Amino acid sequence: MKKNLLIIIPVYNEQNNIKPIVLKIFKEIKRKVNILFIDDNSQDKTRSQIYLSKKKYKEIYLIKRGSKLGIGSAHKCGLKWGYLKKYKTIVTMDCDGTHHPKYIIKMLNTLKKNNFDIISTNRFLKKNSLKGWSLWRKYFTTLRHTVVKFLLNINYDSSGAYRCYNVKKVKLNHILLARDNGYSFFWQSIFLLNKKRYKIFEIPIYLPPRSHGSSKMKLKDVVSALFYLLVFYFKNH
Q1: pTM of the model
Q2: Region of residue 86 (phi > 0: left; psi between -120 and 50: alpha; otherwise: beta)
Q3: Is residue 163 within 8 Å of 120, Cβ to Cβ?
Q4: In the chain, what are the domain boundaries?
Q5: CATH 3.90.550.10 for the 3-235 domain, yes or no
């Protein structure tokens, strides 16, 4: 029998965000749901917090990885697990408090009612959706969105990780065509899935600053992502 809903949450040093995200998910979603954490060998008490949540909720699972292999790699790992376990719907999201679980129900309802294949969130459909962010983060996020949109000729907010997949319609091997294991996995996968003519729909989202801890994206990640984007662009044109 196919399972209903899986939420995939990659984590690295998110000890203070595990309990809040778990409580919010089970509060917002009034249906059977499983949570899969993918931990890239966190150096804090992230795993301990997950184990504490597992004692309370049997619906929580954990994949432990031996090193920090990249956010894109973590999403691929979780998606492979979810497809293998035959879930009907898979949602991917961040653990840092920026992705509120209240949007999951909207994504699920939109997916079902309108027969879409993928529902993604967009930070640029409403004004002040990045309220509270630092000027540097706002500038970088907007710049990245503009550059990707221009080079790849796609209108989606393609660098976001908050998505919902209709497993019955979206082939796993098409998602895995996105080779990058870092942050570029997100725009690359949307670009390739769009080329495969999947029906992708976006819903607006407000994105507050992270609740605890610091961003995992460093300057080297920004430079690497830009270089990868340019290489990908010239290879495909």
Answers
A1: 0.90
A2: left
A3: yes
A4: 3-235
A5: yes
